[in-house]
Each structure stands twice: as structure tokens, then as C-alpha cells.
């Protein structure tokens, strides 16, 4: 049950990142798409009662999920700060 809960948190966080990018009309970085593909394969493995797939090199470099809700919110919905002069 713990593995399924962790997978749900992972999928939710990745969905927030991808949807946030789409709403902001910015491309989702390839590393995040690699992580999403791995998460899909992991979900399929869970349903099949199999072991987790090996995570690709690019996806391993990303932070582990789940992240804090505030960090996910900032990544998805808060525009980057712009430089201001004083």
C-alpha cells in the first residue's frame, strides 16, 4: 500500500508540473518528461505486481518526489521573478 501511495504522490506532482507548464505556455523540460515516462512505467509495474523499472539517467538527476506542496505550487503557478533595477 505504501508503494501505491508514493506512486500516487509522484504522478500527482508530475501532472501538476506538466499542466503548469502547459498553462504558462512553456515547454516542459525533457528531464521532467523522462521522469513522467518512468513514473508511467512504474505505475504499470505496480498494477502488474512487478518490480520498479530502472530510472533513466536524466530522470535520476531530478529531485525525488513528493516535493512540498508549496514547491510544487511555485513551480507550476508562480511566474519567475524578473530582474528589477534600483
Compact summary:
By secondary structure, this protein is mainly α.
Distance between the termini: 54 Å
**Could you spell the SSE succession in H and E letters?**
HHHH
How many domains?
A: 1
Which range does the strand content fall in? under 5%
Assembly type of the chains comes to single chain
| Poorly predicted spans | none
Write up what this structure looks like.
The chain is mainly alpha-helical and 86 residues long. The chain has one domain (2-77). It contains four helices and no strands. Helix 1 runs antiparallel to helix 2 (30-48) and helix 1 packs parallel to helix 4 (69-77). The termini are far apart. The model has no long low-confidence stretch (mean pLDDT 76).
Write the layout of secondary structure elements.
Layout: H1 2-23, H2 30-48, H3 57-60, H4 69-77
Helix pairs in contact: 1-2, 1-4
Throw out a few tags for this protein.
mainly alpha, 86 residues, single chain
Amino acid at each position: 500500500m505504501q508503494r501505491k501511495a508514493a506512486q500516487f504522490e509522484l504522478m500527482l506532482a508530475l501532472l501538476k508540473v506538466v499542466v503548469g507548464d502547459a498553462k504558462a505556455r512553456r515547454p516542459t523540460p525533457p528531464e521532467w518528461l523522462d521522469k513522467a515516462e518512468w513514473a508511467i512505467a512504474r505505475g504499470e509495474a505496480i498494477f502488474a505486481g512487478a518490480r520498479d523499472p530502472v530510472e533513466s539517467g536524466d530522470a535520476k538527476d531530478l529531485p525525488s518526489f513528493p516535493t512540498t506542496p508549496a514547491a510544487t505550487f511555485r513551480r507550476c503557478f508562480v511566474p519567475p521573478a524578473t530582474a528589477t533595477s534600483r
